Amino acid sequence: MTRNGFFERLAVCLLTVLLVACTTDPNKKKHQYFDSGDRYFAKQNYRAALIEYANALRVDPDYEEARYKSAQCYARLAMWPQAYQDLVRAVTIKPDDLKAQIMLGNLLLANREFARAQEIAEGVLKKEPNNADAHILLANSYAGLNNVEASLREMQDAITIAPDRSASYLNMAELQLHAKDTGQAEANFKKAVELDPKSAGAEMALANFYAQQRRFPDAEADFQKAIQLQPKDPLPRAALAKLYFVQGQKDKAVEALTDAKKAAPDDPNAYRMLGDFYFVTGALDQAVAEYQNVLHAHPKDQVSKSNLTQLLVFKGDLNGAAALDAQLLKDDPKGVRALILDGEILIGQGKPNDAIQPIQSALKSEPDNALGHYYLGLAFMATGGDARAQSEWQEALRLRPRMLEAQRALANLAVRRGNLQLLTDSAAALVTDEPNSPEGYIFRAMATFAHGDETGTEADLQKAISLAPDNPVPYAQLGGLRLRQKRFSEAEKLYQQALDRGPRYFDALQGLVMTYGAEKELPKAVAVVQAQIQKVPNDPAYYRLLSGVLLDSGQHDAAKVAVEKSLELNNKDADSYLLLVKIYTDDKRPGDALEAAQRWVQQSPKDPRAYVELGVLQDGQGNWQQAEQTYQKGLQVQPDYAPAANNLAYVMLEHDQSPDEALTYAQTAQRGMPANAQVDDTLGLAYYKKGSYELAVSTLQGAEKKDPQDPSIHYHLGLACGKVNRRDCARSEFELALKLNPNGPQSGEVKEALQGVSTQ
User: Fold this and answer.
1) What is the pLDDT of residues 327-347, one digit of tens each?
2) What angle do CA 84, 85, 89 make, to 5 degrees?
3) Which domains does the chain have, with CATH numbers?
4) Fewer CB under 10 Å: which end of the chain, C or N?
C-alpha cells in the first residue's frame, strides 16, 4: 500500500462521510422539501405542494414558512378548516409574520367573525401603520360590523397608501355599494378598470355592478370585454350566461356555456358548466344528457361521473346511480365523495342501517366533510337515533355554518321532538341565512305559536305567504292559529286553501278535520277525509286520519277497517299501530291490543316507540316484569330514548328494584325530556327512594308547577315533604292528591299517608 493510495482512500471516505452528513442534515432536508413545494406551488399543483410542505413540517413542526405556504395551498383548494389550523399555528410560531396575520384575518372575515378580524387588523397596524392590506382588512371588518363610516375611512387610507392598486378601488366600490352610494361605487369600479385595463377581474366586477343595477346592455358589454381579455377562462362566460338567464334568454345562456366548452375543451371547469346550468335550472333530463356527453368525451373524469351519479339520485334513478357509484368505488375504494354517495343512495333505497358504514368510512378519511355528517345524520334519523342525528347535523353546521340542509333537518327534528329552544335557534338561523325563503318564517311561526305569541306567529306566516303564495304550509299553519282563536270559518277557508295548493299535504286535511271536530260536525269531517282519499287513494296517513274520526264518531268497527288499510299500505306506521291499540283498548279487548303492539315490534324492531307502547300494555295488565324487559329492549335500540328510560325507571321504583339503577334511567329521561312533568315526577321519586329527600322535594315541586293536576305528583311530593319534617306541606299535598282523584289506584295509600301525618 502506498502512502498516496492510503490518503486518497481516506479522503474519499471522509468525503463520503461529509456527503452522508449533509444529506441527513435536518435543516437542509426541510429546505429541500420546502423548495420542492414552492416549485409545485408555482405550477399551481397545490396538492403536490402540500405533500412537500408536510414533509418539511415532519422534519420541523415549527417551520413557520412551511406552515404559511401550506395554509395558502389549503385556501386555494377551498379546504378552509385546514387552512385556518395552519395559519393559527404559523402566527403562534412567528407573530411578526404580518402576511400570515392578514391572511388569517381574511379567513375569519369570510367566516363572519368580524370582531376577531378587526383585532388582527388593528394588531398589524400597530406594528406597521402604513400596511395597505391591514387597512383593507380593517375596512371590511367594520363593514361586517355595520360601521359604514369607519369602513369607508379605512378603505380611503388604504388607497392613499397605495393609490395605484386596482384591487383597492374594487374593494372601495363594494363598500360604497354596501353604503348605497351607487354613484361613487360606479366611479371606483371604472377607476379599477382604468388602472388595470388588462384585468378581466376588474371588467367582471364592473359588469356585475351593472347587472345588479339592471343595466343589462352595459353588463353584457363588459362581460364580453372580460371574455376577450381571457378567452379560455370559463368564469366570464358563466357570468354572461347568468345575465342572459336572468333576462329570460335561456337559449343565449346555453350558447354562452357551449362556447365556454369550445374555448377550453380540456378545462373541467369549462366543460362541466352546461351540465351544472341545466341542473340548477331544474332541467334534470338535459343535465343528465349533457353529463353523459361529457363522460363520453372525458371518460376518466371522476368528478363528472360523481356529478352524474348525484343527478341520477335527484331524478330518483337509484339503480342507475348505484351502478355508476360502484364504478367510482372500484376505481377508488376510499373515495370520500363516492362513499358518501353510496350512503345517500342506500338511504334513498330504504336501507339506512347499511348507509351508516360507508359514510363513517368517508368521515374517517375526511372528518371535516360537512356533507358526510349531514347524510350520516339522515341515516341515524331513519334508524331512530334522534340524538345522534342532531349531533351530526350540529357538527355539519360547525364545519359549514350556512349549510341550509342541516339547519332545516335540525328544525324538523326540533318539531318532531318538541324541542322549542332548538326550533327557535334553527328558525332564526334560517331567517338570517335565507331571508327570501319562506321556510325560516314558517319554523319561527311554529316556535312563537308554541309560546303563545299570536302576533309574532301571524306576522311570520303572512311573510311566508307573501314570499311563496303557492306553498300550502303557511296557509295551514295560519289555519291553526285561527282554530286556536276559535275563528272557525276562517280556519276552514285557510285549510282548504292549503289543500288546494297541496292535495297531499296531510297537515292541512288534519287541521280541517280538527276544525269540524271543534264545531261538533263529525259527519263533515268524515266526508272531507273520504273525499280526499278519492283524490289520493294510496296514502296511508289519510286512512289513519279517517280511522281516528270514525273512532271519535263511535264507529269502532269502521275505524278498525280504516286503520288496517293504513297498515296494509305501510306496515311500519307508528301512529296507525297506536290508533289500533287505542281501538282495542276502548273496546276492552286487552289481548288484541297487546297483539297489535307485538305486531308493531315485529314489523319495526328498530323503533323504540313500539317497545314503549308494548311495555305500557304489559304493565297495565299486571305483567310488570315483562314490561321491564320490554323497556330494556327499547333502550338497547336507542339508549337515550327518554320515554323508555322514564317508564323503566318508574316500574323499577314502584316495585323496589335497584333504586341506583332506576335513578340513572330517570336522569337519562330527564335529559331527553326536560319539560315533561311526569319525567320530573319519576326523577323525584327516584331521589326519594334513594333517601335524597331535599332533592326529591325540589324536583317534585318543579313537576307540580308543570302539571298541577297530576295526583301522583302531589302524592310523591307529600311523601318527600314528610321525610324532611314539613308536615303541613305533606298534609296539603295528600289532600290535593285525593281531591284530584278520590278513587284512583293509589287512593288507599294516599289516605293511609294522610292519616299518618294527621296523627303526628
Assistant:
1) 999 999 999 999 999 999 999
2) 115
3) 542-604 (1.25.40.10)
4) N
